Amino acid sequence: MEHIRLPKVENVKLLDRISHRRRRVGTLYLTATHTIFVESEAGVRNETWVLHSLVCSVDKLAATPSGCPLLIHCKNFQVLHFIISKEQECHDIHLSLQRLSQPESYDELYCFSYKPNVDEKERRQEWDFLDLKADYSRMGLPSSLWKLSPVNQHYKVSDTYPADLFVPESATPPVIVGSSKFRSRGRFPALSYYSPLASSQAAICRSSQPLSGFSARCLEDEQMLEAILRSNPCSDFMYVVDTRPKLNAIANRAAGKGYENEDNYSNIKFQFVGIENIHVMRNSQQKMLEVCELRSPSMSDFLEGLESSGWLKHIKAVLDAGIFIAKVSLEANPHCLPHRCPQYWFRCGFVCVLYLLCVCVKPTSSIFVLIEKDWVSFGHKFSHRCKHVVGDPKEVSPIIDQLLECVWQLMEQFPCAFEFNERFLITIHNHFYSCQFGNFIGNNQRERIELRVHERTHSLWSYLWANRTDYTNPLYRPNHSQTQGLLRASTSPYSFKFWKGLYNRFDHGMHPRQSVEDYLRAIQEETQQLEEQLSSHTQVGQGYADLPQA
Amino acid sequence: MSTEIMEFAELIKTPRVDGVVLHRPFMPTVEGTLCLTGHHLILSSRQDNTEELWLLHSNIDSIEKRFVGSLGHITVKCKDLRVIQLEITGMEECLNIASSIEALSTLDLVSLMYPFFYRPMFEVIEDGWNSFLPQNAFKDLESMTDEWRLSEVNKDFSLCPSYPPLVAVPKDFDDETLKKVATFRHGGRFPVLSYYHKKNGMVMMRAGQPLTGTNGRRCKEDEKLINATLRPGKRGYIIDTRAINVAQQAKARGGGFELEANYPQWRRIHKAIERYNVLQESLIKLVEACNDQSHSMDRWLSKLEASNWQTNVKEILTTACLAAQCIDREGASVLVHGTEGTDSTLQVTSLAQIILDPGCRTVKGFQSLVEREWLQAGHPFQQRCAQSAFSNSKPRHEAPVFLLFLDCVWQILRQFPCSFEFNESFLVLLFEHAYASQFGTFLGNSAAERARLCLPEKTVSLWSWVNRPQELERLTNPLYEPNSLVIWPSVAPQSLLLWEGVFLRWNRSSKCLDEAYEEMVHIIEYNKELQTKVNSLRRQLAQLETEDPLLHTP
Lengths: 550, 554
Known about the structure:
The complex is a heterodimer of chains A (550) and B (554).
Chain A: E1 8-15, E2 23-30, E3 34-39, E4 47-51, E5 55-60, E6 68-74, E7 79-84, H1 87-100, H2 120-128, H3 132-138, E8 146-149, E9 165-168, H4 173-181, E10 190-194, E11 203-206, H5 219-230, E12 238-242, H6 246-253, E13 268-272, H7 278-293, H8 299-309, H9 311-331, E14 344-346, H10 349-359, H11 364-377, H12 382-385, H13 399-413, H14 422-434, H15 445-450, H16 453-456, H17 460-466, H18 500-503, H19 516-546
Parallel strand pairs in A: 11-14, 12-13, 12-14
Antiparallel strand pairs in A: 1-2, 1-7, 2-3, 3-4, 5-6, 6-7, 8-9, 10-11
Helix pairs in contact in A: 4-5, 7-8, 9-10, 9-13, 10-11, 10-13, 13-14
Chain B: H1 3-11, E1 16-24, E2 27-36, E3 40-44, E4 53-56, E5 60-68, E6 71-78, E7 83-89, H2 91-105, H3 134-144, E8 148-151, E9 167-170, H4 175-184, E10 192-197, E11 202-206, H5 220-227, E12 236-240, H6 244-252, E13 266-270, H7 276-290, H8 297-307, H9 309-328, E14 334-337, H10 344-356, H11 363-376, H12 381-384, H13 401-415, H14 424-435, H15 447-452, H16 455-458, H17 462-466, H18 469-475, H19 500-503, H20 511-547
Parallel strand pairs in B: 11-14, 12-13, 12-14
Antiparallel strand pairs in B: 1-2, 1-7, 2-3, 3-4, 5-6, 6-7, 8-9, 10-11
Helix pairs in contact in B: 7-8, 9-10, 9-13, 10-11, 10-13, 13-14
């Protein structure tokens, strides 16, 4: 509370983003967790609540005759334009919000003060909702080829990796440790996904870039890859997919990092898929958002801006990478080419997830597992990328936005394939940033344990699960053909759309005025009631039929 | 044998070739016999389970041929934007086929068009030629207001060749006055009623540009005529679909616009809707962008932008919204015109009606709108739709004016998916038939031409075919719930999408989207089925209860 210089300002104007002439007048309140604007028009009590952790930037603009403008940009792409009549008040609100929206320590985060009406037992159960071990055993692990390795207990080998990791049966601790020393942040190759089908034993592994520089090699790392290759008996080669553009990888060599020297690794095909780095992505999104924020752009302004932002180009690169893997895996169907079934090995959780989405993940609960395993547990730097706490602005990047957008692009192409809907993705997006739930706090498993996240916060997954009717795609049927097997998505440029549902989320006027999905959901609810009535009527009718004839 | 048939026979150098291979995107390759008839290109494999190709010659926009050895490849590009490939062995056969197609697809004589030869294979329940007669539409108007009359001043098309024989005009103006006004308007297109807004009695009229010329000619009768539509003390809006500089330039050619001094009760607003040659260019560029194989996002977006297609969509919709706003929100009457009053004017008046009038959002209402505001109103379909995006010949009067209108309707349909009785397929169907059809509906350039060609007697109307239950079922929107409100579409660039159903129709598989549509239909049908079952059970139970006195005893 000590950061709130002014808890309440009256006679504040909130401008409509598109038409500044339309404005609402009300009172602005600052609380420890929210900015609240209460409209004071007679008759309506209209409230706008903005979580401090969702605030991305607060700007005080030059004063005008009507007052002092305060512009708030949020991480969920809400933009609020207030006019505060007194400059001093605006100044106080500005300073307060700047501080409130930039927590200096994890303990200030909203999840540690968010206390819904849930008792402790239930709260603990929330965290039991997802069980990653069960997911591994669903994949048939451990098996004769892959084992659970204790090597990273206490995070000694890689402090950003989870404690439980699967590695090839033949990988000994010295090989793993040796390989980890050759990899950035000790992130040695570990299993991410294993095909549970007996017919295909292809695996997806992940790691960070090697510290190979120009000449260094590492025998243990080469042995590690050899072990991965051998853990698939029906394949004699594997792909190493480097998610960077080749140029970046070459540049990194000068910094003592880089990419594997192909001469030192046998039976491995190297493939660069050209996903740009976090800085390019950050700048690209910034430019794209500037286009979204134009007040009444012409079609050319919009399309030119979209093009020059490069955003869709990056989305395409990410989806291309995921589909590349999916296609390679399909071509190497062991039934057709039993000796060429390759294994895959990535550096980045991105492509893993997309590959899996294309191949097997369509029900709602599976995407929980996917995000929990490949992003949360494998150590995506949520705190830095989403700027949960004050830090280096160069570490911020919309990687997670891109993941969700790729899923959305797939949903647009395959409307029946996913159990969840767009609203679900937008809700998850909101909570990646909101810090309301403990799931995405900290940068890795070790930090979350230190913060005692499971003891002190709530889990998003059980919240989403409890509200799943809101997030269900009415067109989804588990036995629909689109839910079976690989999604053969098109990545022709024209197949990509601009996601106004997310980036112009708060510009209600831009969205369709009638929702097909809501309509269908209402129909389905009615259908369910009808089914119940039908069965009860049939029973009653049966009762009549059973009556003895008088 | 009639002379026409003789003529076709001369054009067909080789009527039949065996072993022709057909390639179509996202469809299996078919090998079979290619046949050329007077109006069709047919490819049949003579196997039961493979699909045959029946292509109207009039649907062919351009053909290209090339040879690899003696194997000829003919690329056929259609007006509906489909591109197919034929592989023909033998150079002579291939050249013959190519030149025959070329000749048959570029026949200019209207009387040789397929609709004059087509015999329907279905029973005509309701003759579409009589479905939307102006006198019937006028009856609806009469039930709302007595301020308008139906004038026969143009019954022999002499006053305005592009108007129908019957037009609605203010009651107090006799035909003699109309004749004077006609001389003051481009193409004789004097102001006529386009739409009457029942809610507040405001009207929308359309006309050709006033022929003010450089010396500011005026016409008192014209001024009086349009003033007669104003309520006392109210102002009206003149929406000129041209930018002010274009309207200025028109003066030099005898055209112009209404000067404030002479029309003090009217506020003139200029909007910039592009004219036909620019629109044709835009379509060509857009289709070229959609067929670009480079897989580069930058290239796609920059080509899409450079085509200006979406800009045109936005501009037309914005102007239509403006017209609708003037009528519904401002409570003012509106006069819309551009230059001729046969293109952008009709886009605006018809879209404004979609926005304002729920009746236009039904299947029949939309047909009636197309009939009234496009066919009867004199949009020169035959000229505008003579060529599509692939034609190599220099465009003369071609322009996708009607296609842009359909695109705008699709945009509104996307934003209000439950407010239209018809679905996207209906719009695509209208696009196809405007460019090539077995029906006579879109032949000719005006009501006068259609009368001269005796189309109602000699051809079948598209509406006769569409308005049969089996066709309607396919074209009806399962989500439709009548919505009596005015529907305001968003014209933000983010809200306007590329019409995939037309422009990407042949470039990507629509399987998954079709499946989603079927799924949606299934959900709704299943619901209806249950509803019927539950209702009939309820009735049965009620009957049992009354029949069975035992149950009433406690």
